[in-house]
Amino acid sequence: MRELRLQTSDGLSLEAEWDVPDASRAVLILCHPHPKMGGTMNAPLLLALRDHLLERGWAVLRFNYRGIGTSQGQTGIGDAELLDAHAAIDEATRQSPQLPRALAGWSFGAAVAIRVAAQRDDLLTCIGIAPAIKPKPGITAGVPPASDISLKIPTYLIVGANDDLVDPDDCERWAMETGATCEVMKGANHFFWAKYDKLVSHVEALLEKELERSQS
């Protein structure tokens, strides 16, 4: 693991960590959950994803949004954080320009990832885990309605059937209207307790599918 500083387009410096296996095949950038609810780049679910993917040849870049840890600035509802995610993707590109890149996020971070991915065409795929689909005043900007967003890359949503913070029906409806793919995981809640192994294996399968497709 190597510590990095990211530079956003509005002049902030963010803390990040760059984990690279001995032989990297691709890069995954991870967006963490809600900063006002304890979310950081060290959220256990994100660390589980990192550990699993490192063993399979994926480099992983995690970062703290503005106002979290030693990152400069103030936290928001997911609008300014788009600049943070763009900075992370750009830094991953500088670190490994020859490698394909994918983006993923959890909860608040999944909404950020989806919005950023819709603005770029240089990513393999975007995976939103339990995405904050609906806006909540003062908490999250959510994601735009289908009529206001155009997905440029394959986009996947994974939500727990027992999620009490994100309605699986909302995720399925949004995916159907936008052309994304939504998968509902039986027995899982918003935090995927006791489902980490199943979740990380599923994320890996989606990433590998898009990586293989890009190389065919």
What does it look like?
With 216 residues, the protein is of the alpha/beta class. It has a single domain, classed as Rossmann fold (3-Layer(aba) Sandwich). Helices cover 31% and strands 21% of the residues. Strand 1 (2-7) and strand 2 (13-19) form a beta hairpin. The longest helix has 20 residues, at 196-215. The mean pLDDT is 97.
Question: What is the total number of structural domains?
Answer: 1
CATH H-level superfamily title: Alpha/Beta hydrolase fold, catalytic domain
Assign the CATH architecture.
Answer: 3-Layer(aba) Sandwich
Task: Describe the sheet with the most strands.
Answer: 8 strands, mixed
For the terminal residues, how far apart are their CA atoms? 31 Å
Total strands:
8
What's the CATH topology label? Rossmann fold
Rg computed from alpha carbons, rounded to a whole number of angstroms: 16 Å
What's the order of the H and E elements? EEEHEHEHEEHEH
The proportion of strand residues reads 15-25%
User: How would you describe the shape?
Assistant: globular
Poorly predicted runs of 5 or more residues: none
- Measured as a percent range, the helix fraction is 25-40%
Topology at a glance:
Elements: E1 2-7, E2 13-19, E3 26-31, H1 44-54, E4 58-63, H2 81-95, E5 101-106, H3 108-117, E6 126-129, E7 155-160, H4 168-178, E8 181-185, H5 196-215
Parallel strand pairs: 3-4, 3-5, 5-6, 6-7, 7-8
Antiparallel strand pairs: 1-2, 2-4
Helix pairs in contact: 1-5, 2-3
